[in-house]
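Question:
When you can, review this sequence-structure pair and walk me through the tokens.
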Amino acid sequence: MNTSGIADTPLEQLRWHVDAGADEAVGEVPINRFTAPEAKPETPTAAVPEHAKPTPIERPKKIAPVIALESAEETTATAKSIARACQSLEELRAALDKFDQCPLQATAQNLVFADGNPEANLMIIGKAPGADEDRQGLPFVGASGQLLDRMLAAIGRDRQSVYITNILPWRPPGNRKPTPFESELCLPFLTRHIELVQPKALMLLGGTASSTLLETTTGITKLRGKWAEYKGGEFGCPCLPTYHPAYLLRQPALKRDAWRDLLSMQKHLHVETN
């Protein structure tokens, strides 16, 4: 990679495009867009007699939106039923491996379930896997994950003293924001995930995780640093929204606020264990 930020070699260029989300080919055969297309000779068409023309058929109006809505509700109900039946983290992961109703599975390489210690008192939840996480099958292993590791180290923690997962276990193409349907479909599995771990507190990284679990439309800038109560299924615990590490990489001036949130979490857990 040269100093201009543009990849030098074909391999680096390919990796750059994959990390940017361009990981699917558009066509099987390359097309030279700079060459004018060959003109095709016009074929004269014979006039069709009026009596030979097909009679127009009135087709019923499409009801796809209603069918799609019913299908989405049924699929979400199925996800809830499957998730509730899981009695361990191993069963939950196996259920997600077999679940084939989420559109994201068609483009993701791996299921990204969790990392860290499920016995830890702190559970950290982000948005969704990125390109690095999708390749390795682990959450927060890219640049934002490295920053998260440094943030945890600043309060004396590491991956063996926390438990990390995401709202979505599959990467959205191009790291785009999850659709409402995708979040709703995966939420029953996350709810059961939290129930099985039963942490003392949740740290919600970013607006997507915070708004999904707190069922609010309030933005992360207003939510961060303010303790709230999470309630899902038959389990509840305190939770603290804060900025996502990926956002902090783009807005380093906000690291001071994230540091205050970390100290607030450290103080809360210290009180809980004493």
Notes: The chain is about 40% helix and 10% strand. Strands lie at 115-116, 122-126, 163-166, 201-205, 228-232, 235-242.
